[in-house]
Amino acid sequence: MSGYNDRGGNRDRGGNQDRGGYRDRGGYQDRGGRDHQRRDRSRSPGRDEAPREDRFREPRGGGGRGRGGYQGNTPGDAPRSNLPPLPNDVPIPEGARQVPYPDLQVRGTVGEKVMVQVNHHTIESLPTKAIYQYEFRFRVPEDSQLKGSDKVSTQQLARVLMTKAVTTFLKEDFVFDGVSLGWSPHIIVPVGAAETNVVELEKRRDGKPNSVEVSVRSTGVLPIGTLVNYIQNGKFELNPAGNESIENILKWIQAVFRKDPATRFITRPNSNAYFDRSPETTMMLRSTKNVLEARRGVFQSMQLRFGRITLNIDTATTPFWVPGVCLIDTACALMGTQTGRLEGDFRSNPETFFVACGRLRGSFFNIRHLTSAKKDKKIRLTGFSQRNAIESTFEERVGDDESTTQTTSVSDYFERKYGIKLQFPRLPLASTRFGDFPLEVCFSADGERYKEVLQGQETADFIKFATAPAYERKNQIQHGLRLLSHHAVPTIAAHGFKVNPEMMSVKARVLPAPRLTYGGNRPMTPRDGRWNLRGLRFLRPSTIKSWVIVYIPARQPLDNGQLERFGSEMVRSFTDCGMTVPREGPPIIVGNPFGNLTQVVKDSVARAHNSFGVPPDVIFVILQGASVPIYKTLKAGLDVHMGIASQVMLQEKALSGRGSAQYLANIAMKVNVKLGGTNCIAEEPLFRSGRCMLLGGDISHAAPGALRSVNPPPSTAALVGTWDRECTAYTAVASVQESLLGFIGNVKPMMAELLKRYAEKNNGLYPEHIVYYRDGVSESEFQAIKIEEGRKLHELSQELGANAKITIIVAIKRHHTRFFADRDIASKLGNVPCGTVVENSSTINDAFIIAHPDLQGTKRPTRYVTIIDENNMSADAFQRLTFNLCSSYARATTSVAVCPPVYYADQACERARLHLVDAEDGKMKLGPVHQNLRWNMYWQ
Known about the structure:
- It is a single chain.
- By secondary structure, this protein is an alpha+beta fold.
- Among the domains are: 132-221, no CATH class; 327-444, paz domain, CATH 2.170.260; 541-674, Response regulator (Rossmann fold); 689-813 and 866-933, Nucleotidyltransferase, domain 5, CATH 3.30.420.
């Protein structure tokens, strides 16, 4: 069979599976560990060792050897690898032909035309031979079922696919999507036929059989020509609704390119990121006392981009638990204590132990006290017991008679059975579904990702490692391409693919900087996305009639003189920006961080009222060190109960003495919009064409640890919308909804409230044009947003008689596309200029926009995709509006990476999470924002 008339291709699943995208620099900066610890040597396989984790294989243990109790631990180093250069020319595989790609027609015309490189590599050939698709069904027979379920677990599926009988049956070059579809250039089962077999796995510990029934049905030949026609017609969406053929072809390509790296590197099911542990790509996070490390891996994903089928190759940096670390050391590091004090610290404050060590929940570890192969088995930690090794007892069998038992403690059992006298018998035990284990015989497994959120200095250390200038990032990507070595993978060639080793060059344009207007109609044009407030006044400055400072020291407090001088500097800086403030600096209240914060706030309100005759318009809070509980208490009380604007500052920034004028100018920008003022406006023709409303929408989900709880917290959703003519003044509404729901469930009543507010400020008139920027959406969710949000917004507009024309633009931030400039236009870091636009489609408004200046590392563009466009925006209008908005972000004098409606919606979501309270039915509800704040941008 030949030609492109009856086969198809593949699809990117949308979104960024591993949340990668951090850049990296530097090497392995710390090996070994703390001198005071005794350590086992951890195993770190080199590139020529057996695979450590496969997509379908149960993860292998990777800790060190040996048995006994607590001995400390040290990770070992991995050898360096020498990678050969990629060949200059790789022939098209036999049974394949080159793909006839059309030229991508660029629709925009404004701006300077340039060429840039992008980290996408063209897939240049597709097979002309038949690729057969097979549908798999897996079920557990009744005699092997646990709890009456026939569902096959991930571990069982992995073992089934690795058995010799199955691999022989599936033949060479078979690929699987990890769920239910497989593909092969060979006929495994005749087309239209099906076959069922039972695969016997190793029996369980209780002696019960452990088998899985596997059914395979051939669904025919992939119509690869469908994908080629799809691209030649100028369509590049990765979620072709209703087109199952295209969807399956895209899955096939993804599976082909995933098979080889999934057997050679550490990865997760359906992840596109692959890691190994080498000195060049690993760095200890010293702020974690060397129990966490950052690893830089390679990211690979098939995508439809820029008129081509491409492989997106990038770096991906993720924190891992350091392998071979005893959980005693981990507990010490997480609690910030030492081994000699661990038990005492636990006795004095057990809650601190459970909260700190809760970060381990869900991770795998190895046990070292067994002499059998089971010591390499990975066990998932589900939590910690409430009893220690002395208090925890069980019935131990005595002799061969199962009916004869004796009660024994875990501590006594380990000493008698294994000769291990526990050194920490009064600590909680590590709980698993196999039982409880003392922490000192548990060692972190190899290849274990850290699943929680990094904290404080840990985040700073991680970002420092992950960040690299564009020219260095490009070298890292090329290194990753050599690691993957597509030309040397037999499965890739057998399926007919050839990958161009050179990055794509694409057409781009650099848009002109927008014109900003400040007070006195003074114009300002940013230069490379930056400007300065010196000599500028706010366009509409606010007035402060009454104010107060609340100072909450954590340690040695500052004297009143320093705080009074700071208040005087605030008067000067705010006045320079055009704001009207009292001539006297704000009075100062000193609060106890361990006292009644609500009473402190009430006292500050009374103090301001006594000083100025009216309650405060804004309360400034200075914290000596960041404190999430204090911040949450203050914001919840002031936003919900008192309706007073607030501004929290850290002492180390506010009173450092360095750059105080710039710092206070930044504070003034935030306070001005919190009180209803406008800092500046960006010129935009759309706003002169009629009544226009900008919307931003986002959803915030709880942290991973909270989501694993019995009653996970709800998600919070927020909509922000403008109500003024220049589209700079925003108001917000928020709601709670089912945890992890991907669309805004209450979008209709939330939007109704925003339209009501708009009409209230515009003589009862509704907007004629609505441009809605939606954040947090992957390509696979486009259709759901159209139906669940777009359709409801349209219905609401019709019901109210507004008949507004609605445009919905999705902002995608989590992706791995990066652009690299030639030297003549590149910045010092090698980045493309601010204002660079690269179009991704010749049929719809779909473009990558780089709106921000150089900060650090490689710039990440934001992709904007129009999914509904009743306003019929041209490419130039769509790109100009989005780019110009990025210079109107209220709290910055730089153009920002994502347009402000998206930023504001994200901030309103996070602020709403601080307003959650427990309801009587055991669920959580949202405390309503006070009416005093509903017109102002209190979340800034």
